[in-house]
Amino acid sequence: MSKQQMIPFQTTLFVKDTCLCLHAQRAARALARLFDEALKPHGLTNGQFSLMMSLNRPVPAGMADVAHLLAMDRTTLTAALKPLERRGLVIVAADEKDKRRKVLRLTPAGEVLLAAALPAWRETHATLDQRLPDIERLRADLRALS
User: Fold this and answer.
1) Which residue stretches, if any, does this entry annotate as coiled coil (predicted)?
2) Architecture field, domain 34-128
3) Residue 4's pLDDT band (boundaries 50, 70, 90)?
4) What is the DSSP string of the chain?
5) CA-CA distance, 141 to 134, in Å (whole number)?
């Protein structure tokens, strides 16, 4: 039986310093905490805010469209919608034209809450825009990856 070779510690340091996935995950968690804190007075998480904002459109959105936009599977989207439905902020209903298809929309209470939370989101983004030297490049690079 041969002894398995251990990965040198230098390799661990190299991966820590260069791994795009690690750095993207760390940045995503840091941003999520920052926006969660900003939106907390409104009783929303950053994920709920993004979900509600994705429903802010003139015509109700289909589940598949929203799931695609938020890079979620439908099961995860369904789970994320439940607390917002219980709070009376969103409605999930059968599409009038195709009863097999579900559509999502904000309720009037959801629209009011989203409008109230928007200034906190804008203020947090303004702070980040000032802190990061080339924010538009970062946005473009992130869109290219997603």
Assistant:
1) none
2) Orthogonal Bundle (1.10)
3) confident
4) -PPPPPPPHHHHHHHHHH-HHHHHHHHHHHHHHHHHHHHGGGT--HHHHHHHHHT-SSSPEEHHHHHHHTT--HHHHHHHHHHHHHTTSEEEEE-SS-TTSEEEEE-HHHHHHHHHHHHHHHHHHHHHHHHSTTHHHHHHHHHHH-
5) 11
